[in-house]
Amino acid sequence: MERSTLNLWVGIFVLLGFFSFLMLAFKVGNLTAGGSGTTYSVVAHFDNIGQLKERAPVRSAGVLVGRVRSVLFDPVHYNAEVTLAIDSQYQFPKDTSASVLTSGILGEQYIGLDAGGDDKMLKNGDEIKLTQGAMVLERLIGQFLFSKAQEGGTSKDGADKGGKK
Amino acid sequence: MPLDATLRGIRQVGDRTLRIVERVGATVAFLGLTLAQSATSFRRFGLVIREIFYAGVQSLIIILVSGLFVGMVLGLQGHETLQNYGSEQSVGVLVALSLVRELGPVVSALLFASRAGSAITAEIGLMKATEQLSAMEMMAVSPISRVVAPRFWGGVFSMPVLAMLFSAMGIVGGFLVAVVVIGVDDGAFWSQMQAAVDFRHDIVNGIIKSVVFGIAVSAIATFEGYEAPPTAEGVSGATTRTVVSSSLAILALDLVMTAFMLKGWN
Amino acid sequence: MTNLVEISDLNFGYNDRLVLKGINLTVPKGSLVAIMGLSGCGKTTLLRLIGGQLRAREGSVRVAGQELNHISQRDLYALRRRLGMLFQFGALFTDLSVYDNVAFQMREHTTLPESVIRDLTLMKLNAVGLRGVQSLMPSELSGGMARRVALARATALDPELILYDEPFAGLDPISLGVIGQLIRRLNDVLGATSVLVTHDVQESLKIVDYVYFVSEGVIVAQGTPDEIRASTLPFVHQFVWGEVDGPLPFHYPAQAIQNDLGLREG
Questions:
Q1: Is residue C217 included in any domain, yes or no?
Q2: A67, B239, B255, C17: which has the fewest Cβ within 10 Å?
């Protein structure tokens, strides 16, 4: 095989590889969305985060605006401390509320942000004060039984077994 | 004597284990030797380019076609299953994540081991059997730096490119089946995929995997060729061993790396 | 006249089996010496010891004044640049053209410009009469032609010592005569010293200066070709004249044939 044909083929090979990398990075992956790379982090405390994991999406009005950076247990308040990395191009008011939501029935859990009306915006290191934790199925059922029991007014035992929301 | 038989059985297991460990150790030592004598490969990169042609370019067809088919099957199966949950639009996510994280690196490495790895072993083994390696040594040229190292690096450079092509081709295949044939919404297919596939944690990790597989397959293939008994059976046995050991190494390494990557090692 | 190769009291063995026992051998500068013997008598092993591919167990092997037993890899490679070796079946690099094969050492060991390498290569090929096949691949050559190309390659850097491993094996009578004449001529033209390992008595007796006979790891006879032809030693006589039976029996040691066939006397 001639040296020049060899080089030509290897050149084509490398270019193909490069284009497939570009396709994977921009068409398949999210290098464009949030690919600017700059994010700011805010902290939120939840009494229960359910199945929320690191890197879970953070959405506002359904749009991906960031990702969960870390999930830790706060030994002082005995609740979950979640750090969110939000894309710098999205700014939220200081009184924005965060809740742990589920996409679909079997879907993953994510953090939903509902913008408030404050003039000041959240900055790096701020905390979101208004939070709502995950719905836990057992508690929902317990609540349901509790309310049913109250409606009927028949039994008092077992009522305490239902948790509070 | 049942006790004797049992003892003999246990001893055989021990023997086998020791031999496997020895073989792995020898392969790693050989890899070290190859790395130590790689200077020539980079000073005269033409040698490596030639091997990229034989290992990479000549594997293109099988990689592209297999990638397309695997992607199409994923599209069909994924759609079939996701339909039950009313989320057939997530088929893009399923296809892309399976390919980029696992199937792309693993399947392309398995194909690479049987297509290029076996060829490397057979070629080096034959060069040894026909005394070409001895001849080179007698000319004061180290066969490791002149024959082994360029083939090793050719394999290491080709592998990630092939894996990316496999994944890209597979996603195109999934797109063809899901969107063009079945009629899943075009926008949902891509947007859900983009929302779910993370550049750093999915794509880059997949590429890291394929680089590691490339190193493993190339090291095994060159080692088996270099250590092959210089006979016809010797070379054919070494070729078989390359495919078997490479496949096992790929799957074992994949398990270890996946475990670390999911733990957030990166 | 000084000796280029000096071997004294050499013992060598693979594992427990002693292959060479108490070998004493000298090769004077400028001479063409043959080591003859039956297949498997250890003569190729002897050649590999001279080339430094094997290390002696006891005794010394000195080539160009250097003791090979404790030589470092670097010194050995430096020594090998002054050595040429013709392998049994040529051992041409099958992935390089005839031209590139001959130019191989010049490219690896010198920084000569390509135009000089071209002239030298064509001169070497011309010396073996094969300038016309420079662009062919080794697989396109006949056995005799491959041997001649290998000869051109072995002498590419004008070595001081040329080692020949069975240069006549598997050649037709014409090619055989051509190779024999080339070996003699190259030795004289280059002022080199040659060691020839062969079992082809008639052809080598025509060209060599001195002969060593090896049998079962021991030198059993030595002398000039005329002395060998006139030798009355039974073994040498049997070997030179190719007799079926003699000191080396036709039958491999076995029990009596009657027993093997289940026959009884009477």
A1: yes
A2: C17
Which SS3 state, helix, strand or coil, does residue C68 take?
Answer: coil
- A90 and A48, same domain (yes or no): yes
Question: How much is the pLDDT for A106?
Answer: 58
CA distance B58 to B196: 33
For residue range A112-149, list pLDDT tens digits in order.
998 888 888 888 888 888 888 887 777 788 888 888 88
Q: Could you give the angle at the alpha carbon of C87 between the alpha carbons of C82 and C93, nearest 5°?
A: 90
Instruction: Give the B:C interface size as CB pairs under 8 Å.
Output: 50
Name the domain count of chain C: 1
Beta bridge partners of C199: none
Q: Which of B47, B74, B84, B165 to mutate to test the interface with A (most CBs of A within 10 A)?
A: B165
Domain count of chain A? Answer: 3
Quick check: is C266 in a domain?
Answer: no
Reading the block at residue B73, the tokens are 């099957």
**Distance (Å) from the alpha carbon of A24 to chain B's nearest alpha carbon:** 7
Report how far Cα A54 is from the mean position of its chain's Cα atoms.
8
Choose the closest CB to B164 out of A21, A104, A106.
Answer: A21
Cβ-based contacts of C104 with chain B (< 8 Å)? 139, 141
Q: Which chains touch C (3 or more CB pairs under 8 A)?
A: B
Most C CBs within 10 Å, among B40, B131, B138, to test the C interface: B138
d(CA B32, CA B219): 9
Q: How far is residue C79 from each of residues B239, C71, C213, measured CA to CA in Å?
A: 35, 10, 27
pLDDT, chain B, mean: 91
Q: A69 and A59, same structural domain?
A: yes
Q: What is the pLDDT of residues B99-156, one digit of tens each?
A: 999 999 999 999 999 999 999 999 999 999 988 999 998 888 999 999 999 999 999 9
Asked if residue C151 lies in contact with residue C126, where contact means CB atoms within 8 angstroms, the answer is no
Domain interval for residue A12? 1-32
Note which residues in 107-126 of chain B have CB less than 8 A from chain C: 123, 126
* Minimal Cβ distance to A35: which of B50, B190, B199: B199
User: Cα(C62)–Cα(C5) distance, rounded to whole angstroms?
Assistant: 6
> Which domain, by its residues, includes C22?
3-94+159-175+184-260
Average pLDDT over residues B16-44: 92
Half-sphere exposure of C43 (CA within 13 A, CB side): 27
User: Are A95 and A43 in a shared domain?
Assistant: yes
> Which domain CATH number covers C197?
3.40.50.300
Which of B131, B134, B140 is opposite residue C81, by nearest beta carbon? B140
User: For residues C47 and C42, what is the distance between their CA atoms, to the nearest angstrom?
Assistant: 9
Residue C34, beta-bridge partner list: C196, C211
- Say yes or no for a CB contact (<8 Å) between B202 and A29: yes
Say yes or no: A144 and A125 in one domain. Answer: no
Q: What is the 3-state secondary structure (H, E, C) of C143-154?
A: HHHHHHHHHHHH
Per-residue pLDDT tens for B196-232?
888 888 899 999 999 999 999 999 999 999 999 999 9
Long-range contacts formed by B81-85: CB under 8 A, 24+ apart: B85/A104, B85/A105, B85/A106
Region B237-247 average pLDDT: 95
Tell me if ipTM is over 0.90: no
- Most B-contacting residue of A13, A72, A83 (CB-CB within 10 A), to test interface: A13
C108 contacts B139? CB cut-off 8 A? yes
Interatomic CA distance for residues B175 and B99, integer angstroms: 13
The answer to whether the Cα torsion of B114, B119, B124, B130 is positive or negative is positive
Looking at the partner chain, which of B126, B135, B140 has a beta carbon nearest the beta carbon of C87? B135
